[in-house]
């Protein structure tokens, strides 16, 4: 028994490691990588492992740790401060998506109301992990569409709880009347509130006593004990493990130790939650795509198109502009970890038919894989959709768009350098400028380079320097020079043309590192005049020649 369990754990961890190693570097979400790993070793793949109770239990613990951290985020003051986004937009998005999906599932699959409601709840959820990671990597967390998306995600996380309570109340009591089910759910909520009130008075004091002990291991063990203890008590009371964990987290959400507890719990959550996604992947039947292509397509359509439509209409109705509304809709238009949780919980408790559960689980996985591809391009997609389907609303300033963030950073600067690209060479240039106390604005569009530069202490902003709006926001007319370390020659040419399109920036030089004469000629063709840069020499040019590209005035070069 022990040997078998050890072998199963080794196989699952190994295949998860391989999935992460191969898929994450190509920008595929880790959740999708875990699902793919489970699919490979599951009964519908190579059938390496059966789904065992031991591994399934470890996955459930991962969900418990996830719900505990969600509970920690449940801060009443935070909710009140962001009430328009969280309860306004978030509430409308969840309710509208659930209602539309209930109608669709009821009509197309002819299910009963409970099944349609559970599926609608799953479709309404998006992945906090996928969305927040991409927005963070792209420097868009503080943008307007980023704040809209995070507000909706927060409400979605909280909205998971009523669905879990509903599953608990109905599971195993299928022959009960609606009144009896409602009474059972009301009892669960009442017990939940009583325990929450009592816990708020005792648990923070307990954690204060732990913190005074001064031992990091003591604090870490107590945090884990709280999660496991809450899960055990919830199970003994007839509630699900995730509900108990959420309750414990919520009780500690207002305490002074919330952030430290979250840091102690997060590594365990990430590993165990990965096991949950692997075990979920083991239940996926990819052949359902072949057997029911129309149904799976409809599922993906609901997850992507319907959800985007709901967010855009809701955000517009509540007063937000079309571009941030579209971008927020695009970044949450996919399924999430809580969708998988609701579907698997409902299926395990016999509330979802196997065929319907498979369709929505597979559709959810597909939508998450697609989201990993398009979220990095949400700005470009939103611009194209807005131009194609919406009339322009007149001049608008999106105060927290990428352009506004860059503009805020450069507003007080004059005679500064605009550094385009902050990879290896760009970071060398930034170091030289820092040492010389030369003011500059650094722009980088590759999330990996962006994070690497920030880790090394460089002040760099996310933005595509070849876009006219970004250059204007960076203060191009007031700049003394533009330094490009962009790796592709065509990007440097495009940058040169963009600079030449500004009449007010006619005398601003562009210094570009080139590798051979062919690149020099291309830049000359774009209207540049070559000049060797003595200031940045081999650093900016990576051992090649430097070219000063600026607008050629009539009658000669400037």
Automatic annotation (TrEMBL):
InterPro entries the UniProt entry points to: Cation/H_exchanger_TM (IPR006153), Na+/solute_symporter_sf (IPR038770), NAD(P)-bd_dom_sf (IPR036291), RCK_N (IPR003148)
Keyword Ion transport listed: yes
Topological category with respect to the lipid bilayer: Multi-pass membrane protein
Domain RCK N-terminal: residue ranges: 414-533
Gene Ontology biological process: potassium ion transport; proton transmembrane transport
Transmembrane segments: 6-24, 31-49, 55-74, 86-109, 115-136, 148-171, 177-198, 295-314, 326-344, 356-375
Keyword Ion transport recorded: yes
Keywords, in A-Z order: Antiport, Ion transport, Membrane, Potassium, Potassium transport, Transmembrane, Transmembrane helix, Transport
Entry GO CC: plasma membrane
GO molecular function, one term: antiporter activity
PANTHER family found in the cross-reference section: K(+) EFFLUX ANTIPORTER 3, CHLOROPLASTIC
Protein's recorded name: Kef-type potassium/proton antiporter, CPA2 family
Species of the source: Consotaella salsifontis
Record lineage: Bacteria, Pseudomonadati, Pseudomonadota, Alphaproteobacteria, Hyphomicrobiales
């Amino acid at each position: 028994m022990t040997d078998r369990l050890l072998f199963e754990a080794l196989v699952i961890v190994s295949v998860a490691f391989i999935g992460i190693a191969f898929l994450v570097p190509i920008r595929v979400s880790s959740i999708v990588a875990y699902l793919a790993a489970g699919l490979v070793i599951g009964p519908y793949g190579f059938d390496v492992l059966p789904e065992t109770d031991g591994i399934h239990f470890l996955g459930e613990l991962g969900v418990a740790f996830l719900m505990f951290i969600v509970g920690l985020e449940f801060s009443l003051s935070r909710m009140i401060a962001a009430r328009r986004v969280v309860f306004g937009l978030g509430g409308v998005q969840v309710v509208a998506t659930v209602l539309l999906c209930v109608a669709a599932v009821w009509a197309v699959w002819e299910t009963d109301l409970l099944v349609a409601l559970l599926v609608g709840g799953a479709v309404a959820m998006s992945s906090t992990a996928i969305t927040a990671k991409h927005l963070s990597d792209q420097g868009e967390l503080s943008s307007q569409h980023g704040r809209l998306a995070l507000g909706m995600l927060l409400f979605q996380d909280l909205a998971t709880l009523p669905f879990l309570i509903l599953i608990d109340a109905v599971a195993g009591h299928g022959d009960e009347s609606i009144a009896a089910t409602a009474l059972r759910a009301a009892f669960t909520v009442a017990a939940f509130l009583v325990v929450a009130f009592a816990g708020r008075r005792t648990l923070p004091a307990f954690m204060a006593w732990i913190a005074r002990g001064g031992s990091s291991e003591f604090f870490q063990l107590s945090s884990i004990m709280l999660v496991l203890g809450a899960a055990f008590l919830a199970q003994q009371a007839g509630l699900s493990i995730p509900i108990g964990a959420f309750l414990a987290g919520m009780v500690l959400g207002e305490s002074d130790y919330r952030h430290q507890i979250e840091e102690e719990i997060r590594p365990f959550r990430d590993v165990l939650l990965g096991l949950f996604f692997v075990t979920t992947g083991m239940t996926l039947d990819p052949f359902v795509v072949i057997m029911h292509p129309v149904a799976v397509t409809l599922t993906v359509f609901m997850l992507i198109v319907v959800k985007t439509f709901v967010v855009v209409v809701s955000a517009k109705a509540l007063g937000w502009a079309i571009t941030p509304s579209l971008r927020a809709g695009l970044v949450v238009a996919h399924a999430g970890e809580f969708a998988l949780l609701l579907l698997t919980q409902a299926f395990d408790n016999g509330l979802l038919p196997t065929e319907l559960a498979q369709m929505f689980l597979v559709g959810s996985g597909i939508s998450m894989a697609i989201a990993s591809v398009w979220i990095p391009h949400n700005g470009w997609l939103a611009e194209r959709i807005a131009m194609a389907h919406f009339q322009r609303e007149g001049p608008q300033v999106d105060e927290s768009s990428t352009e506004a963030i860059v503009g805020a950073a450069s507003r007080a600067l004059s005679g500064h350098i605009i550094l385009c690209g902050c990879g290896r060479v760009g970071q060398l240039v930034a170091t030289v400028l820092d040492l010389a106390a030369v003011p500059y604005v650094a722009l980088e569009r590759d999330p990996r380079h962006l994070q690497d530069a920030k880790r090394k202490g460089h002040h760099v902003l996310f933005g595509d320097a070849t876009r006219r709006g970004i250059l204007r926001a960076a203060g191009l007319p007031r700049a003394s020079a533009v330094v490009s370390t962009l790796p592709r020659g065509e990007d440097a040419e495009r940058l040169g043309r963009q600079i030449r399109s500004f009449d007010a920036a006619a005398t601003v030089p562009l210094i570009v590192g080139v590798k051979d004469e062919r690149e020099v000629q291309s830049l000359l063709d774009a209207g540049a005049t070559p000049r060797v840069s003595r200031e940045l020499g081999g650093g900016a040019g990576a051992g090649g020649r430097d070219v000063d590209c600026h607008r050629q005035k009539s009658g000669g070069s400037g």
